[in-house]
Predict the 3D structure of the following.
Amino acid sequence: MYKSQTPVSIGDRIISVISYVTAGWVGLIYMVILYFVRKPASLFLRYNIFQSIFISFFYFLLCMIFGFISNILLQIPLINALVSWFILLFNRPIIFEYSAIQSLVTGLYIYMSIMALMGKFPRVYWVSRIIDKSVR
């Protein structure tokens, strides 16, 4: 985990939070602007922007793969009932009209946004190690 020697600016915190909320798009645009202005981004900002982009892309990819696999399995006569039940189980509204998967992802984004707003590096088990290596 990174230990910040200098306090994180409020601008970096706000951009990090907005990056998590917008699935990394604002952070990506901000990094492009910083590139053209030739201003280096802080370690905190790079970490949070890369993590938000990585998690959003990973979630999108995971949903696409599971959707593709479930569409194939729904064509098999004896397995389609089990697959339909499994899909319904995970997509049924549980908390505030969110499904279990949506609740977990929303909770993860809320956690990361709050930690970024506090000026700390949000840690996600497997993802943060990958981001640590790429941000150096």
Observations:
- The radius of gyration is 18 Å.
